Amino acid sequence: MEDLYHFTIAGGISASTYILVFIVGIVSAVLACYLPVLAMFANYVQKGAAGDKRKAIRIALNFILGMVVTSVLTGLIIALLGQQFLPFVEKYNLLTWVPPVFDILAGLQLIGVISFAMPTFQKSLSRPELGQSNFAAFKLGIPYGLVISPCAIPIFFALISYIALQGSPLHGALLMTTYSLGKGVILVAVAVFSISILSKLARWGGLVRKVAGYLSIAIGIIFLVIGFIKTDH
What we know:
disordered N terminus, Cytochrome c biogenesis CcdA family protein, membrane, transmembrane
């Protein structure tokens, strides 16, 4: 138990993990069912920027900063709660099978075999009373730190399960921030290129979704097999 605790707190997460989470964030923002959110975001930014790309970028960055605030708090809370369950993690080998199972569920969701639904805040972007100032964008970004498209629900739960099982508040906050920044890359692109980037995402979104789905299933199965082989030995 003590060895597991020191592993999770003392940096058992490599740089490659952060790169992967960043990529996952990007993928989550280009999935077909996230396009309505991107379209509303583009419309929101266009109203505030009035054709000024620099202003569009500032609005987008403040929006993303709001998302990051929520992500940091979410990561901290999930990791702190996860620490309370470390004895159960070790006893039932949860690190072996929980993250891979969510990877497989994520893949099945992405290729359309199963379907999950979760409430989102999409309509708030289209509310006419919202301002487009930097501070208004920041405030609006705060609840959007938890916006999840139906396509990305298993991906999100795979991430928070990993954070909870690792149990490191620092890594939890940084991983959730990395995930938000991955989505933020697409938001900035949408703010600058708006309609043109959305049309390209719509064109390639289905293919990206299927490729990500099959990769997620394959990775989940591989890690399950490796985990159970190590457990048997």
